[in-house]
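pipeline: protein-struct stage 2 | run 1193 | Probable G-protein coupled receptor 141
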Amino acid sequence: MPNSSITQQNHSSNDTLLDTSEKLCTVLIILYIINLAGGILGIIMMSHQLFQRRSQSVMTIIIINLLVLHTFMLLSIPFRLSYYILQEWKFGWFACRLASALIYLHMYLTFVFYMAIIIIRLFRLEFRKCYTTTWVGTVWLVGALIITPVLLSYYGTSKIYHPSKCFQFHREIQEPHMVIANYCLIGILVAVCAALTIIQLMVICRLAVKYWPDINSHVEFRAQAKSFFFILITLVCFMPHHVFRVYYIQNYHLDKDHKLLTYNEIFLALTTMCCLDMLCFIAGIAH
């Protein structure tokens, strides 16, 4: 009888874990479907507007680069959806590492372009088209020729993984160089975002006091308010993943049922929601 009771408890525990895993997987599927549909719609509509305007401003150049960056990200989402729906990876090990690395490249390059927009508007910087093209091209070259090869050379290569499984490089998270790299990226993103958020809020408050009560009629205030939109995207889409990443690194050894791994994937999926920013551009939130 005691053995029978223990067996029933184990079965009940396993059923609960499977049920939880299925629910979390459903959340992932819903998030990626929303991001894919909204991202494609936003890119099509924004591309149409840019084609009509034919503007060559600094902001237009950055927006075009965000469009390209989002497009690469969206191309990888169907592969992720296939994996989460079928519960099996069918596209080979290199494609798995590429799709996994791409989501991080997209997140950090998008963050760079967002910060560029905020800083340019915040400090009223003016660049010639050639200078803008140069630094944007440098960002792409660093990402394509340095960061991507490094990620593909080391990411997911130090351990042996099942060929039908993907996005499960959790066993490498405790490697000293991975811990250091993660903490550095988290520290940089949080510090930069916090500093620009404080400065941006101070500028908005100063302009609100200066132009009250007709604040919306002043171009300067509207520009700074719209610039704050990019900080909000960073706070909503990028910050939760990085905060949870600290908890995940510190508690990885306790994650016996891989529940934290799935939560980490959900927060990672949340970062791709920044692809919906183009719909906000169309709505006139971020010009």
